[in-house]
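Repro case for the chain-ordering regression, as requested:
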Amino acid sequence: MSALAIRVQGLSKRYRIGGAAPGPGHLREALMDILAAPFRRFGRPRAAADDFWALRDVSFDVQRGEVLGIIGRNGAGKSTALKIMSRITPPTAGRVELYGRIGSLLEVGTGFHGDLTGRENIYLNGTILGMRKWEIDRKFDEIVAFAGVEAFIDTPVKRYSSGMYMRLAFAVAAHLDTEILLVDEVLAVGDLEFQRKCLGKMDEVARTGRTVLFVSHNMAVMRRLCGRGILLDRGRVIANGTMDTVADLYVRPDPAGEAGARFDPRDRHGVGWAQVTDARIVDDQGGPAKGIPCDADLLIELSIEVTDGMPAGTSLRGLVVELIVCSDDGQPLLSLMNVDDTGVALPDARSCRVLVRLPGPTFVPGRYRINTFVGVPFLQHVDEISGALTFEVGPPAAPWRPYELYTGRGLFCRKAEWSCLQPAAAALRWDATGA
Amino acid sequence: MSVMLGRDAGAGVPWVVIDPTSSRPLVEVRELWHYRDLLYFLTWRDISVRYKQTVLGFLWAILQPFLTMVVFAIFLGRLAGMPSDGVPYPVFSYLGLLPWTYFSGAVTRAGTSVVGNAHLLTRVYFPRVLVPLSATLSALVDFAIASLVLGGLMAWYGIVPARTAVLLLPLAALTALAATGIGMWLAALNVRYRDVQYAIPFLMQLWMFATPVVYPTSLVPAGWQPLFALNPMTGIIDAYRAAVLGTALDWPSLGISALSAAVLAALGAWQFHRMEQSFADQV
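-- result from build under test --
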C-alpha cells in the first residue's frame, strides 16, 4: 500500500561560476554595464562554460515511509538537491512534488540567538523550522528532557557549553513532526555519547513510518538508517537501489581510472615560485598503479618544479615537502615530510621527482585524499594544494581478518600482534582443543 | 519558483509543487497564516535582543527623538525662530520627530533585515516577507515608548490632547505600511547591491528635510503643497499634529499621502516578491 511521498522529475540547477549572482554585484558595475552596452556588440558573448550544473536532470521517487540516503562526493549535488526540496533555492529546470508537510534540517540550531534563553530559543527555532506555537508547547518538556538542560532552561544560551548548545539544538529539530523530513549531516555533531543518542532518535524517526531523506558522508550511519540509496556524481544520479549496494558502489574503486587516482590542482595557494606539477599513485615498476590493495605499500610520486620565468639559479634545495593524507570527508590522518629521518632533501635542481613509500598495510578500503605542501621552513608558504590527489584503497590482496574491513570502524589498517599474558595456561589449553 | 499549496494532503494532489516558473501568487494568505507564530517570535526576538547588554536599555528609544528635539528646539526654535503654527516649538517638533523616528528606524531595520538574516534564509524555508515585516513591527515598540514622552511634554506645556488623538492609531498603521513597503524594496535591492545599506542612512537624512518634521508645511508655497504631499510622510506628520492638537486636518493632503504610501507599499511588495526566490543564492 505504498503511496508517493516525493516525486523529483528532471531536476536541474545551474550556478554561474565566479559568484552566484547572475549579473553585476555592485551598483557601480550595473551602471557600467548599462553604459558599456552600446559598445559591447563585438564583445565575447557570455560563455556557456561559465555555467556550472550542480544538478543535471535528476529524477527519483520516494514512497511514503521510506528512508532514503543520498550519497556522493563533495560537490556531487547532494546539498543542492536538499536545498531545492526544502524550497530554499529554486531549480533551474524540473519539478518536485511533495505529498505532505515537509521539514528540513540542513543545520541544527538555525536562528539560535546567544542572548536569548534556552526556553526562548526553543520557541524561536521551532517556529523557524515551521512548527506552530501550540505544537512546541505540547512538546516543550520532552525537548528539554531530551537535551538534558532542565537546570539551565532560563539561562542565555551563550553561557551554555558547546555540548549543551548542540544538544538543545538537536532536541528541537528531532521533535519536528512533519510527514517528510530532510536531514543533512546533522549527525556529525557533538560528543560520541550524544551522537549515539541522535542516532537512536533518528532510528526511532525512521521507524515511525515517516518519510526521511538523509544526506551524509558517513557510510556506516547511512547503511544503518537507510533502506534505499541514491548515488550522485557531478550532479547526476549514477545509482539508485538498496543502500548497501549503492554504498558498496560508492566505496569501490573506480574501474576506469588508475585506482581512481586523480591529480587535481584546482585548490592551490601559496606564492608559487615552485609548484607540485603532478602527483600519482604508482606501482613498484613506476607505472600508474592498477589498484591499491590495503595491505600493499602505498607509493606516491610527486613532481616538483621551479616555475617557468624564475631567475636562473633558483633551485628546489632546502624546500620542505609535506604530504597530508586525509579521509574522504577531509579529516587529516597522517602527515609525511621529507625532513623526517627517513626523508630525502630536495636536489639543487629546477625540477625533480620524489617517491614516497608508505609501508603497508595502510588504510581501510575507501577513498582518501592527499594535500601537498611545499615551503621554505619558517619563512614562506610556497605551494599548497588541498585535495591534490584523490585515490581509492581496495580490499587486501591477502586478507588477514575473517570480516570485512570498513571505514566505520576506523581508517587505519594495521596488523597488531596479540598475546595472552594471564592466565597463559588457559590460553594454551583453548589453543590445544581448538587445534 | 512556483510553490503551489494543495488543499489537502493524501488525496493524490501534491501538497507542494516546486518548479522554476514564477507563477507564485503575490500574497499567500494560507501560508502566512500558518507562519503567524514565526512572525510573532521574530518580532519578539528583535525587540528583546535590541537593548540587551546596554545600560540604558529602552531609554534609548526615548533619548533619540527627545535629544534630537532638544537640539532642534535650541537651534531652530530659539535661535532661528522657526515658525511652529502657534504651538510651543518643542511640542511641535517632537510631534514630527516621533513618527519620523519610527519611519526612518523601521525603513533602516527592514532595509537591512534580509541580509542581516542571511543565515536563516540559506538554511530553512519560510515566507521571506516575515523578515522585513518583523523589523517594522519591532520598531513599533520604540515608537510606543517614545509616545509616552509626548504625554509628558504636553503636560509640561499645559496642552490637553484633542479627542481626535485616537486617530494616532490608524496613522501609525499608515506609517508602518509606508515603512514596510519602502523597507522591503530596499531589503530586496540590498541583497544584490550592498551599496544600499550605506545609502539608507543618507537617504533618511535627506528625506527628513524633505518632510515637515522640524518646519511647518505652511512654509511651503501653497501651489507646491499637493506635490509636497506625494511624500507619504508629509500628510502623515501633518495629520499627527492636527490629530493631537485638535486643529483642522488637511484631508486632501492626507489623502494624497495615504495613496502614495499604498502605491509605494504595493511596489515594494512586488519588487520583493520578484527577487525573493533568488535571495538564498545571492545573499
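Ordering looks correct now. Residues 190 and 198 of chain B are 10 Å apart (CA to CA).
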